[in-house]
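Quarterly update, task 2.4: FE2/S2 (inorganic) cluster-bound model.
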Amino acid sequence: MTVKPGPPRSRLDPEPMPRRDLLGLAAVWTTVSALVFALFGMLRLPKAAVLPSPSKKFRVALPDALAPGEPYVPPGRQVAVFRDAQGVYAISIICTHLGCVVKPTAEGFECPCHGSRFARDGAVTKGPAPRALPWLQVSAAGGRLIVDEGTAAKPGTKVQA
Ligand code: FES
């Protein structure tokens, strides 16, 4: 068997790259790519992966039309704020059973997860919730009400506003 010679090569044609050089070049590029990705990964390490949580304290402005004893749930918060003749108070609306957010009802609160019910002062009226909804610290400063979701208050603590 004879090998047919290809078309005659010109002196201006580039040299064909040998297979060994091509594989070597591919290995170099793979190594460089891996090092670059590893470098980016290492540059990301010193940054904190978790951002600090937002403050648990927030200012609240009660609607003027809020009736005494009617809950007001500020948008984005898991707190019900009440105003009555004795003052302003806040109750967490996180169920003490397994942590669902309870919904205000005419009588108080009801948990949509397992049906616990709470009075307007947070007391359990129907299980399975084991404890009352906790009261939260409210303070009045300069005519502004500040609720601290992270600090429990003694039940019955009301602030004049
Ligand atoms: S989480 Fe509310 S009753 Fe279970």
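Highlight for this quarter: Strands lie at 57-60, 79-84, 87-92, 103-104, 108-110, 117-119, 124-126, 135-141, 144-153.
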